[in-house]
């Protein structure tokens, strides 16, 4: 099986496993709460469409189903949104629609709720593992970045943010992203050769339209201290100029157009703006130098052209001094997991709100294709990366289901809230009449997600 085939295989497996786990968890929340409150559950289905596997079990003879289309699931309860369904007199008290509004609300909210609890549990498991993380010492800080403009210099160590200890690089990425979305200043305590000082980095003028969580810290200027310098090639990609000219793993760059190359950043700095122009390279192989002339291939990313030659650096182990061991007690891990889940949830809510008002790019909405691609990558990295991915998708599922959109859990909760305020239920005819609106909104969101996925593939 080729590398591309293996990548596709891992993407399919990683995606289906994630969807299967998270849909089961979500629907189990509805199921468990319904059973606890005495409501009869008729069917528990993971997936839609034709059943692939079915079993009837339990005192209520509940039908458990694994269906063909794995993009969702549902729990069917007695008398749920079906006033004309025949119900035996001795079971009317167990019908969903006959329950008090608070019971119906708890059953509906239990689905998203258990997604958040599941994420907290996963973060707790990760937090209890001893982990090696980069010390929060900054590498080269661009003077045009917000951090550089605030007066922070290269080599400074981050000590805290808003009083929270900064123990390792990336520890507070989500917190900082939330501060940026709310336009609050970011207050840092840093240490450099001249001592410890507090700085306040304003966020009001930082453009956020094209900023995404993945690139945020780099764009703000939070660049970690670099790995030891190297000019040695680790891999050469087929179909690129370096491969066509016969460069091999282990070759070392000596100079480009007469300019010495002392580390990989020199190579990137020279090659990227040189798309379409020939470069004269001096390389070293087995202690002997040789000359190569090649022309970087032009690639376009988000409207910007860059030159690439198809090589990557040989990984160089970082010294132990650049790492710190992070560990949590069980209680600390739970608290940290809850905080991380809350921050990520608020980030998603604020991102959605700013997308509606066109303050951030719609390209931050990803669909199943990109999710599957990421799933395939993280499942190959290791179980910890995949667990972190599951936690993130579980939070996304919880947030999306709480949106006040007809057909989603949030739409049902909004309906119950109106019932409490009005003192009577919304008629079934009215509710059915507005359901197409919810379907249209979901279809629009999914269309946007697929459009972004396909655009990313072609780009």
From TrEMBL:
GO terms for molecular function: metal ion binding; metalloendopeptidase activity. SMART domains: PDZ (SM00228). Its EC number is 3.4.24.-. It comes from the Bacteria. GO terms for biological process: proteolysis. Residues 124-194, 218-287 form the PDZ domain. Keywords: Hydrolase, Membrane, Metal-binding, Metalloprotease, Protease, Transmembrane, Transmembrane helix, Zinc. GO terms for cellular component: membrane. The chain crosses the membrane at residues 6-25, 105-128, 386-409, 430-451. It is found in: Membrane. Signal peptide: none annotated. Its cofactor is Zn(2+). Pfam families: PDZ_6, Peptidase_M50. It is an enzyme of class 3 (hydrolase). It is a multi-pass membrane protein. PANTHER family: MEMBRANE METALLOPROTEASE ARASP2, CHLOROPLASTIC-RELATED, REGULATOR OF SIGMA-E PROTEASE RSEP. Belongs to the peptidase M50B family. This is Zinc metalloprotease. The gene is rseP.
